[in-house]
Amino acid sequence: MRHVRYHAHGGPEVLAVEESEVPEPGPGQVLVRPEVIGTNYLDVQLRRETDRASIWYRDLPGTLTGDVVGTVERTGPDVDPALVGTRVAALSVDAWADRVLADAEWLVPVPDDLDAATASLLPLAGAVALGSLRLGRIAAGETVLVTAGAGTIGHLAVQLARHRGAGTVIATAGSDAKRKLLTELGADLVIDHTAPDWDAQVKAAAPEGVHLVLDAIGGDTLHRSLGLLAPFGRAVVYGASAGDLTSVPVTSVFGLCSLTGFAIVPYRLTVPDQARADLDELTGLLVSGKLRGVIGERLPLDEPVRAHRLLEDRAVLGRLVLEP
What we know:
The protein is built from 10 helices and 15 strands. It is α/β, with parallel strands linked by helices. The chain folds into 2 domains: 150 residues, Quinone Oxidoreductase, Chain A, domain 1, CATH 3.90.180.10; 139 residues, NAD(P)-binding Rossmann-like Domain (Rossmann fold, 3-Layer(aba) Sandwich), CATH 3.40.50. Strands 3, 4, 5, 6, 7, 14 and 15 form a 7-stranded mixed sheet that branches. A 6-stranded parallel sheet has the order 10-9-8-11-12-13, with helices on both faces. Strands 1-2 form a two-stranded antiparallel sheet. α3 packs across α4, α3 packs across α9 and α8 crosses α9. Keywords: NADP, Oxidoreductase. InterPro entries: ADH-like_C, ADH-like_N, ER, GroES-like_sf, NAD(P)-bd_dom_sf. GO terms for molecular function: mRNA 3'-UTR AU-rich region binding; NADPH binding; quinone reductase (NADPH) activity.
């Protein structure tokens, strides 16, 4: 089978399509034949990191994560064999291949009438967006700021914030096309985050402060976002695409504010029932059309270098998927 890996850290050109044996599912696993593979920006950071001390560093050879939607072909020794033949979505740490192993415990059933690329947003992107809003304790009528709003997770967070009762939704994006998309998705105000005064523009629109910030960028963007919070405001960080993991001064939260980090694995482990309920809710919203999944690019599995160039250049609206 085809299998994408890299044997050196560096630019997109280190990605290679290889031939590998079809893996055998172990305990707690299933083997999935993908219809589509949803890509993640995180892999750009993992692929290019050479510093062993960095949290982004991974040993070689490196594999690529993804959200796979497809059919279960085989089950592990302790997994219900009735799963064979079912259509599912699943997060995998080695997803760019013709056959993919996944954790049977967190398979998401995918209805036949749900587009596979859209369904790829369920296991991670939708779960992170909804989980972050829950962690941020969003309340009706509040003002929410979503940075990187046109990204794979951000474009869902903008819509889910509105769905959960936000009074005003402000989003940031770095291109005209992305800002246009966010307006179509229901953001009340969309700001160019490459503008030097982007935070001043947010403050002018929300002079009493922002109640909740969802941030995927980190670094200076996070620091400036904290300065926009209203008293008792909350910031939830679910990514650091800027690659800057510098510390946040304690003074940033002295205004009765709070800062929390969100990650999907601890969320699943700590509140598994809520995490599963989130997946059911997201599926219903996508099927009903109340939540719109934006698929910006579809590429064949044989073009991993082109895929990572698009991701690295942040040239994709919403999600980029691969089709085996």
